[in-house]
Amino acid sequence: QVRLVESGGGLVQAGGSLRLSCAASGSMFRINTMGWYRQAPGKQRELVATITSGGSTNYADSVKGRFTISRDNGKNMMYLQMNSLKPEDTGVYYCNVLSGVLSYWGQGTQVTVSS
Length: 115
What we know:
With 115 residues, this protein is mainly β. It is built from no helices and eleven strands. It has strands spanning 3-7, 10-13, 18-25, 34-39, 46-51, 57-59, 67-72, 77-82, 91-99, 102-105, 109-114. The strands form two sheets. Strands 2, 4, 5, 6, 9, 10 and 11 form a seven-stranded mixed sheet that branches. It is globular. The mean pLDDT is 94.
């Protein structure tokens, strides 16, 4: 019933930019915190950034100053603007939504940064 769809991934050179989008739809009664996670090959999934319903943000140290998370509560949309991309940013990026006590995940979008 709940679906999260990520888009905007692709292949870019180091120093480039990408803008990821997450569209949430379904029977979610309330959305609290939304966030982006990523997983590189052979690595565990890690938190990239989160944003609360009130707009408070939190970033992993590795992306501070380069990435910006935002959301449009009226449209149930979330975005991740990624600038100054590095090869170590490569991975599958996943959208996550907390609705009440439940957590939902999208299928992910591939981001590849070449050097």
